[in-house]
């Protein structure tokens, strides 16, 4: 029986569970945006912010994910589509990025809202993907979105080098066949490059993809509102 989930890591409540820590992370994001806007390299900017606020590794990971220059934010916002823009369109979905984020959201892990309005988690695929308790529900949520958006076709893109990518691809295709959805699933050796260069709408919270793609849709943001998901959301962006 599968008892795995993508919930919090040991120590995450200490790193992210108090106003003191959230305040520190907000200041770090402000500093990083200031530096990135002035064309500091991301590595240098994150090292400066991390050292200044004495951030732990997972805190720094969250800050990096939430940060972007003002030019990056403006560029991403200019390409963001709304649900009403998707009717009869084809959409390419960054498979592991989306599935793992939804699994994390559903299992109570901390989720971070960035300056670009995207939502990110702290989970990573280190060469191998394993199903968790929330995987089926994650696919169900994508299915609900697919039906409500009236998309023509949804194409899942998975990383071929990742172990078990073939299994999750088959899971998605079996689900599509069962429900008669117009879905496809592909394995790509370099999915980031593939998605960034695609002329189709993409779904991803990967910063590099968002910077280079033609158009994108904020699926996690949509699902949180539309499905009234209970999410352990941390906003480390100053309003």
From TrEMBL:
UniProt-listed InterPro entries: DUF434, DUF5616
Domain called DUF5616: residue spans: 84-221
Pfam families to which the protein is assigned, alphabetical: DUF434 (PF04256), DUF5616 (PF18481)
Source organism superkingdom: Bacteria
Domain DUF434: from-to ranges: 24-79
Signal peptide (UniProt feature, chain positions): none
PANTHER family: DUF434 DOMAIN-CONTAINING PROTEIN, DUF5616 DOMAIN-CONTAINING PROTEIN
Protein name as it appears in the record: DUF434 domain-containing protein
């Amino acid at each position: 029986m599968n008892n795995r989930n993508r919930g919090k890591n040991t120590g995450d409540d200490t790193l992210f569970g108090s106003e003191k820590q959230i305040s520190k992370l907000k200041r770090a994001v402000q500093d990083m945006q200031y530096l990135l806007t002035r064309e500091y390299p991301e590595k240098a900017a994150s090292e400066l912010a991390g050292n200044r606020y004495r951030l732990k590794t997972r805190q720094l990971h969250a800050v990096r994910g939430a940060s972007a220059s003002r030019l990056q934010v403006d560029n991403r916002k200019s390409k963001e589509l709304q649900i009403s823009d998707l009717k009869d369109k084809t959409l390419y979905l960054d498979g592991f990025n989306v599935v793992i984020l939804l699994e994390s959201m559903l299992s109570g892990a901390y989720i971070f809202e960035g300056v670009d309005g995207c939502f990110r988690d702290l989970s990573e695929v280190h060469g191998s993907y394993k199903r968790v308790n929330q995987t089926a529900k994650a696919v169900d949520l994508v299915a609900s979105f697919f039906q409500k958006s009236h998309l023509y076709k949804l194409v899942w893109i998975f990383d071929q080098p990742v172990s078990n990518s073939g299994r999750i691809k088959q899971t998605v295709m079996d689900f599509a066949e069962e429900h008669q959805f117009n879905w496809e699933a592909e394995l790509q050796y370099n999915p980031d490059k593939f998605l960034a260069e695609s002329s189709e709408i993409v779904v991803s919270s990967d910063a590099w993809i968002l910077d280079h793609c033609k158009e994108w849709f904020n699926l996690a943001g949509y699902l949180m509102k539309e499905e009234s998901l209970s999410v352990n959301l941390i906003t480390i962006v100053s309003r």
